[in-house]
Amino acid sequence: MTQRPLPRGQHGLPAEVVVVSQRNRIIEGTARAVAQHGYAHTTVAHIIALAGVSRTTFYQLFKDKEACFLWCFDALAEAHFHTVAAALAEPAPHPTRLLAALHAYMARVDADAGLASAFIGEAEGATPAIRSAYTSARQRLEDALAQWLKDVRHAHPELPDTGPTTIELVNTAIGGLVVARARSGEPLLPLVPEMAAFVFGAIGAWRWAEHARAMDAPAD
């Protein structure tokens, strides 16, 4: 939903409310501008025109375009990480936890399609600082997945040892799919069973993999 600009002059709203409203409009404006022009060709003029704020307001909140993009990306990545971490921490069987985490993550990316297109789809091709933030966000997800696998190995020592690079390969594959779908706008949620089967197959849990392929994505 497009937010209405705040009334000019004395509106009586607390300063913190004004700042939140302005920041939210700038986030929306940045996402729309980057989606339209790509990060490299987006300018502050594009952002403020779409956000409905002044250049002065923009620079009161952000140093420059890169700082604005980084703030938006970090906020989105943090929300996505906590969605995954919460699902993986649920007291449930290990395959159920992974299915729930994938379902929650892909549902969130699909729901955030406009933001994902701008801030996930463009991050790898932006500046070194933004690429570093993207790498850090991916590493946090990889670490969470590695902890899940550690718990799986503890509970199921009969599974084969797939080596230390397995989770890195899995994370790279899923991350690449998320980026591709963020750019194309195609939904990720229908792919959850196959994603889960891929992960289970990678760790040698073939029974879990066949079960995942045979099921639909969990209902919302």
Characterization of the model:
The protein has 2 domains: 15-62, Arc Repressor Mutant, subunit A; 67-214, Tetracycline Repressor, domain 2 (Orthogonal Bundle), CATH 1.10.357.10. The chain contains 10 helices and no strands. It has helices spanning 15-37, 44-51, 55-61, 65-88, 94-111, 113-119, 128-155, 166-184, 192-202, 206-214. The model is unreliable at 1-14 (pLDDT under 50). Residues 43-62 bind DNA.
Provide a concise account of the structure shown:
Keywords: DNA-binding, Transcription, Transcription regulation. Residues 43-62 bind DNA. With 220 residues, this protein is an all-alpha fold.
Q: What topology emerges from the helices and strands here?
A:
Blueprint: H1 15-37, H2 44-51, H3 55-61, H4 65-88, H5 94-111, H6 113-119, H7 128-155, H8 166-184, H9 192-202, H10 206-214
Question: Given this structure, which CATH class of the largest domain is correct?
Answer: Mainly Alpha
Return the domain count: 2
Please summarize the sheet with the most strands.
Answer: none
Ends distance: 22 Å
How many distinct helices? 10
Helix content: over 70%
DNA-binding region: 43-62
Organism: Ideonella margarita
InterPro entries: Homeodomain-like_sf, HTH-type_TetR-like_transc_reg, HTH_TetR, Tet_transcr_reg_TetR-rel_C_sf
Protein name: TetR/AcrR family transcriptional regulator
